[in-house]
Queue: 2 jobs
Job 1
Amino acid sequence: MKDPRVEKLADLMVNYSLGLKPGEKVYMRASTAGAPLIEALYVKILQAGALPYLWTELSSQPYLFFRYASEEQIRHIPEPNMMLVSTYDAYIRIEAEDNTRDQNQIDPEKIRWRGQAVQEYMKTLFTRIGDGTLRYMATVFPTHAHAQDAEMGLEEFEGLYYKACLPDMGDPVGYWQRFSRWQARLIDQLLRGRRKIHILAPDTDLTLDITGRRFLNSDARMNIPDGEIFTSPVEDSAEGHVAFTYPATEGREISGIRLWFEKGKVVKATAEKNEDFLQEVIHSDEGASRIGEFAIGTNEGITRFTRNGLFDEKISGTFHLALGAGFPEAGGTNESGLHWDLISDLRGGGRIFADDQLIYEDGQFLLTDDGHR
Amino acid sequence: MIDPRIEKLAGLLVEYSTAVQPGDKVYVRSTTAATPLIEAVYRKIFQAGGHPYLWIELPQQPFLLYKYGSEEQIRHFPEPYQKLAETYDAYIRIFAEENTKALTHIEPQKVVWFNQGMSRYSKRLVQRMSDHSIRAVGTLYPTSGYAQDAEMSLVEYEDFVYCACMPDPEDPVGFWRAFSERQQRIVQWLDGKRRIQVTGPETDLTVDIGGRKFINCDAHVNVPDGEIYTGPVEDSAEGCVYFSYPAVISGREVSGIRLWFEKGRVVKASAEKNEDFLLKLINTDEGSHRIGEFAIGTNDRINRFTGQILLDEKIGGSFHLALGFGYPETGSKNESSIHWDLICDLRNGGKITADDQLLYENGRFVIEG
């Protein structure tokens, strides 16, 4: 029998997140491991009157590509893909892997070539998302591989996933609308017009200037699951140090990361595991040693670390910093090929001050009214 | 472990049929049911220096489109696919259905909309195939759906299909090269002949082939392959044919078909099963009353009917006629929106003569050697 949650999720994505209209062209990129969700979305897209294009990849395809393609072949971008990103109205990305580590043995040089080759595609994608001509939606589909990374059984992981995506199974859209209003209030009451953020937690004492920067409300329009508010701090402002409680995965797992900042720049970095790799990432370009994003996760359905960025950055009670590229829509100007989220738990006595007012303590916002999400 | 025959078949498709060269752009269209073959073909294309583009459909996708799509949505053919047909150097089509009867209850009109929406693409593809600016091959991946139609287990059906595709598993390319040379001698013998007569049980048909060309099918356009075909002169067919094999179209089976021809045109038609459907199809347009193709199947490994035309039309010892559209490269001028192959076994006393010389008897060419 079909999992009824898949259909509800597809409905939320098509009719709420993207709000597809008749005649709009939408492309969906996913691996075959996400087939149940692809099919459910395909039906919802057709029912919305939109025109779907399925860009379906075999789950083995990325590995085979890097394993067998020459440099010239790796650098080739098929024209149909450029047509999609430059002419379509909406794009759905589903991350669905049968093995999240299958490219670990691939020569990093090859992955760099591909990174360079897709720059034109990525630039078109970000430009069109930024100017509103292309709507974008990303999710993960629960597979054994993603469950394995989360150290859970598939059924447990599915439980976590759907609870995070559809906290109110009876009214998924209503839930996210209420949630969005709650987050808007957080931003209005606690963060709008503030100049300075100060984070205090075990082994953490960091200040950031956010003067003139905007906090944005992530409310299931571009990611599902969602739940975070984020901004890009002033690029040369970070002072202090941070200990990240969760390991970071960027190909390889790096754990026990500590960073020290002066005038916005990382001046010292240590890790308990894979410190060499940490240094390599931080020095990959000029912008990689500065903060592109400061964010607070707000999804209470995500109660544990899963080793999947789309989930982990939303864990309620955490904040994250991203080294690398900032968000122009938040006022960020940092440029980098990197955008690397590093997550820290604030539930064990962590506090956040905005202009010296305590706004967040032990994983909870201190709203003046009793706002309910 | 991967079935080693899949690797060999992929090699045949990429290195022989489409002969992919460095820098060639190659698109592969199939469904996820053929994943092992798609993966092998993908690898071979890289190894040949080509740039592969995979167009992969989910097995349920056509059904879902027809069930939930409006006319506008069914007719919509995405521009990126058109680009493939316009600009790519090679195309590998792998038929792989999990369920060959999934569309049985879909209104036929919806399929017509889809085909109309796709016609700009299909026309461009046929055009580029005939001027050789694109090399295209069609093959079939053994699925349980096809095995079920053939009334075999999947394991038996796999053996059957791979054996038909690669009669010499040690040297698939060498086999088809030698096969092509042998078949070319028959095509040469037929060159310049004017009149073909086919006789067999309840069958006595003559067609004029003056000025028409026979084409040698040797695993370049289809795998498996094995047939020679031409387009007979449009107003020449006289006599009657009894087709011993059923014909399957849009999931519907028509069996026990008999056709009578005068001056090239069907003047009477009957069937033991689904006769109404047969008559409707013949009445599609003017060209569907006439013969677009006359062909002889030559693949001896295909020795039984399976319900898949890609295989059945190659049955060694059979001939087939297609009502409707004829191939311009043979000299045929017949135009129609249908091309419907009807197959007749000649192994039980069947004979073919050309200008009164015996060419073929009991399913064998008698002019060989």
Job 2
Amino acid sequence: MEPVTCAPLGYLEILDKAGRVTHRTPVHSQSLRIGRAFDNDVIVDDPYVCPYHGQLIMEEGQPKMADLQSINGIADVSGRPLPNSVSLAKGHVVHLGRTPFRFRAMDHPLVPTLVATRNNPLRILFKPLFLWGMFLLTLGCTLLETYIGSTEEFELLKQAPVLLGVVFLVVIWSTLWSFASRVVAHRWHFGTLCGIACLGLLFSIMAETGTEYLCFALALDGALPWASHLTLFLATGAVLYLNLRLISSATGALLARFAAGIALALVLLTWGMQYAEQENFDSSPVYQVTLKAPFWKVSGSRTTEEFFMQGESLFDGVDEER
Amino acid sequence: MLSHLMSFCERIKFIGFIGGDMPGKDQVRDRSTKPPFRRRSGGGFFFGSQAGLIAAVVFVAGLWLGMVSPGAAETVSADRIYAEQKDALVQVRISDRVAGSKSSIGSGFLVGDQGLIATNYHVISDLVFHPADYQASFFHENGQSGSLTLTAVDVVHDLAVLRAEIAPGKPLRLARIAPIQGEKLFSLGNPHDLGMTIVEGTYNGLLKQSLYKKIHFTGSINPGMSGGPALNYQGEVVGINVATAGNQLSFLVPAGYLQDLLDTLPPAPPGNTEILEIIRKQLLANQKKAMDLLRRHPLKTNNFNGYQVPDELSDFLKCWGDREPEDGERLYEKSFKSCSSTDDIYLSSEHETGSFQFRHEVFSTEKMSPTRFSHFLQGHLNNPHMGYGGDEDSVSNYQCTSDFVQHGGTESKVIFCLRSYKKLDGLYDVFLTANSLTRSEEALHTTLYMGGINRENALGFSREFLEAISWNR
């Protein structure tokens, strides 16, 4: 004889604070008792929930949450107390203790199935090996940058403060984001956040160095400030996007727009400050040019006549300031 | 050595500039046969009699015994000079029109007729660049005082002539014959607002390596004495106090330049716009004089570590050089050669002009990789080591252009910058720097600075200078 099965009337969902479903219980009977006690239909591990806290009742096909004279009662999403009996129709979320509950009917529409992307590059961010690799690579790049910038015998020990500075920066940044992650997503994600921070630093160092060589090779020193702004935008935007993606359940497109907005604001702020600085009077010439080993040069050279014809245009600029 | 010379130049810059229509060498030689103190202290009569001979023996013996001071006669002369000429001395005060308090002080003296008072331009420069804020007045030791009107300026030689409504004393005469080296001079002025002072010193000729003549005076000139006269034994003005480099090393503007200024006085005091135009023309003439000396074709060059570079372009430039070898810590070797003028022109407390200087540096390394070495050179190139002050009211910001430039068979990364003078149309400060791209382990870094030149010379000389640089190997 086959077991008798009856289709559930719906599902009672337990959510996390970001609104994601953490547990789903089918509702077969007209009522489900909820509490911390082990003889409940739904057992909740929340110290603010009473042993027998509430009961889901189906009345004429409509779900209701009734309070079983619990200490903390039933509350809405913002923590305001609700009456002893509350309708759960239309996906309303109520809190028992600090745990959010939601009822979903059987005919509730499902979101479309996502196509699994086995080669999603973001997945690599969560690999411990990758994280350690990023961290060590960042330290290595910083060390290389210091080495290239020194004109004295290079002693590794003397570079300890620089390396510690980078470590400190990464740890502080990641710790702050970790706290945010703990609050929003209930997970620390510290290692991943460190990896993302290192990725951002690495990108900045490599983009700036690459830009300098490119500007030197093609005699495009005028593009340096713009390239610097672009690097700042990309590095900040990418780090923000990845961090938000890690801790938020919002859609990727929304997060990308938000991260891009913040990065753009930062670039505009930096540009504004630089512009204001340029407008300030300086009694010395202020310029930024690149100089690399001669074999990197690709662009042709001007004759002195061509160069000073170019220089002649400066007179109009400085005369305008008079 | 370098820092010593540099600081020396800085101090000269601060205090003043000299030159003018001084007597020629022949006149100096004529004058040297009859130095004033010799005429006064003896002569044929003194040594022509037996009594005189005895007196001379006693005098010499006294000197040996330290009983008679050789300066005794001169002290009397200083007293006399001061007593006879003090009426011509005034203190020149520049005061804020609103606050009424004095903002700067200097010395001056009556010269010519009609209440004309001569002083240094740098004492009264606020009247030129801030005429609405400042006014000038004189104070005489006899208690007389009155307002002054700016009548003529010579910024190149740091002179100014002002007119007082009443002449508080008798004017001084300008000497027509230059002193001889070693002759005593008496500098007068009001140091630190302490009262009129007479300082005894020695004439030590004219400065060499200078675009304009400047008297080297060995005596203590202190702040506040600027614009005061330096007199000979006859009480004639030989020079005007202008600068000090400390340790009794002082400088005077030869009186000939003041005579030139007095000879060309306008009939009526010029307005501020006219004075600025006069200054502009003086600066344009000054840069033309300097450029005529510098732009001799072809520019003189010398070999410098395998590079042919412009060097010792004119007698008015001071040049020096040195080498810093690799040591235990520094991984590159550096040689440098540097030349600069000492004829800087004071325009205002914020702005000097007229400077001409260039510097060649050769860096080489055997221990650094090309990447590391070029990174070091990039930092050096982006740090301009020359500059000449100026403020927002007097000059624009620098504007620059850079590119790879082919010159003299070699190739360099070149940066050319300039700024304009806001109140003096057609004058510019120019900054040119170049870094050779010939070899990965060696580079020539050259910097040129020219203050207060016109457009044609800014472009023309910069180009000639760059074209004169070549690589010999």
